[in-house]
Amino acid sequence: MKEKYKIALRFCGGCNPYFDRAKLYEDVKTEFSSVCDFELFHEDQKYDIVLLINGCSSECLMEEDYDADLVVLHDRNYQDYKAVIQSAMDKVIK
């Protein structure tokens, strides 16, 4: 069986009260839990993908460097989260 992708999660500060970041994360976990292990981001860990969930398109989390493929979901692309995440997974060699 293929090894699962290791995905770290970071949430923005939540200044947009109209975007439910937690709901989006639950949808992502439901869709990808069979092929991905999710955990909160820790700087000292190695991940295949770092998933940043921003409540708006200002992408306040982008200021940091991450040693992994980066996936950014925000208020303009969240409806396409399956394709966005799958594209990142396709780039990771397992």
Describe the fold and architecture.
With 94 residues, this protein is α/β, with parallel strands linked by helices. The protein has one domain. The protein is 24% helix and 23% strand. It has 2 helices and 4 strands. The chain has helices spanning 21-32, 81-91; strands at 5-11, 36-40, 49-53, 69-73. It has a 4-stranded parallel β-sheet, with helices on one face. It is globular and about 40 Å long. The termini are close together. The mean pLDDT is 88.
Keywords:
2 helices, 94 residues, single chain
Name the shape in a single word. globular
Largest sheet: 4 strands, parallel
Major sheet strand order: 2-1-3-4
Beta-sheet strand percentage?
A: 15-25%
- What integer value in Å does the Rg equal? 13 Å
Series of secondary-structure elements, N-terminal to C-terminal: EHEEEH
* Count, helices: 2
Mean pLDDT: 88
- Span of the ends, CA to CA: 11 Å
Structural classification? alpha/beta
> How many β-strands, per DSSP?
4
In the predicted model, the low-confidence regions spanning at least 5 consecutive residues are none
How many separate domains make up the residues? 1
Secondary structure: helix percent: 10-25%
